[in-house]
Structures are given as C-alpha cells and as structure tokens.
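Minutes, project check-in
Item: structure for the 304-residue chain
Input as provided by the requester:
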Amino acid sequence: MTALRAQGMLFCAIAASIAAVVIAGVALPPDDAAVLFLLAALILLLGVPHGALDPVFAEELYGVHGMLGWCAFVLAYLGTALLVVLLWHFFPQLFLSSFLLLSALHFSGDPARGTPVTARLLFGGAVIVLPALLHEEEMGRLFAFLVMPQAAAAQASVLHDLSWPWLLGTALTAGWQARKDWLTCLEMAVAAALALLAPPLLGFAVFFCAMHSARHIVRTWHYVGAGLGQATRLGRAALLPTLGTLMLGAAVAYCWRTQPLEAGLIQWLFVGLAALTVPHMALVEPVRWRGWVRRRAQTPLDAG
C-alpha cells in the first residue's frame, strides 16, 4: 500500500467516524468560542504546515536560492498575502466569494491522479457547498463575521440552493468513480457525508487537516524523491516558515485583541488562511496540473 492510499484510508476512517456519530444522534459541541480555539489550534498545528513547504517549490520550480533570492521570495509571498487582507478590508463581499471559489478549486486537486475534472470539482466544492444544506443558518452566522449580515445570509442562501444538485452530482459521480478506483469513490462519499452532517467548522477542520494538508505533505515528499533523507529535508524546509506563520498569527491576534472573541477568531483564522492560500496556489498549482511531475525527471512521482 502506498503512503497516499494509506493517508486516504485514514481520512476516510476519521470522516466516517464523525458522520456515524452524528447519525447515531450523539450531539457534537456547537461552534462556540472554546471549540473555535480547539479547531484553530488543530488547523495551525496540522493544516498550516503543508503551506510551509512552499519554499521547496520555489526552489524546485523557480531556482530561488541565496540570500537575495529568498528575500525577494519572502517579500513577494507576504506582499501577495497583504493584498488579500486589504481586499477583505475594503471589499469584504468580493473577498468572501473569491475565497470560497478559490478554496473549492484548490481542494479539487486532492483526488488521485487520473480522476476526471467533473469529479474533482464536485469533490473540491463539497466542503464549501454541502454544509449549507443542513446548516444554512450557521453558515450565515459564520459568514457574518467576515461580511455584513445581509451579504452573509445571501451567500449562505446561494450555497443552500446549490447544495441539493451538488449532493446528487457527487453521489452519481462517486458511484461512477467506483468502477475505476474504489478508494477515490470512498473519499468522495465520506467527504460529502462529513460536510453534510458535521458542524461546519468541525467538518472543514477535519477535511483541511486529514485530507488536504496530509495529502499535500505526502505528495511533496514523493515530489522530492521520498526516502528518510527527503523527509528530513522537508522538516527543515518547513520549520522556519511554520515558526514565522505562528509569530505573524500571534501579532495579528494581538492587534485584533479588542474584537469580540468569536468574531476575532473567525476573522483571524479565515482571513489568514485566505491570505496564505493565494501565494500558496500560485506556487503549487503548476505542479498539480502537471500531475506532480518534476520537470527534471519528467516521470510521475505521485501514485495518486
């Protein structure tokens, strides 16, 4: 069994367990401040580190090296992130719509290599669209921390209208995919069940950490050649960006300390994720569209 398939099965086990708990009628804790702290910590510790591997792609794709090269890279990366924060500050509704769309497109890269585009898009959008089927009011409440309440309710309503056809399309596509790859079919099914049944923030955190981040880390490990030595290289490459992100996050949290706790946490978490996602996508998407093939090798290093 490859590392990618093992990671996929682990995600399926976690997501299916949470969905089963909800179906059994066990009440999960609401998205209150205490739960928000836990989920934010989970995303920071298990989700954000996959983006800390971006220097590997900067070096591999663009030949970034030397003090001058890395200074320019850091300035460009942080400058792009700052533009995203400014977009939220001045045009929050455009920010929210763009963030949801970009997230769905980015998550569509998670399924195994060879998965049809339609299946990818349905999978990537499931965690964004399907929570609104049963949790439209909660989605609107969370969005209202990022945009005006009227715009938040309208955005949640749009997602709710999309949720039924999205669920049907996901079910049909997962069934079709079962003929080619049972694990991809299972990943689609449990991701949809998780998004549909779990509280929105819990569902997002589990998907982001156990599927998206974990899969990206495994693929990056394959991309640079796998092996214990490469794992050590990735650990060293991720250390400084991870520490820098934590320090920057702490500084932003200090600046927003006057905000109401729940609003501050949601803004800190999702505006921060959006700000990091845009430069991250700029680096990673070219690799994804090549099927995780290194230019110098011209052979797939990703079995999934």
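Outcome recorded: Confidence is low (pLDDT under 50) at residues 297-304.
No further action items on this chain.
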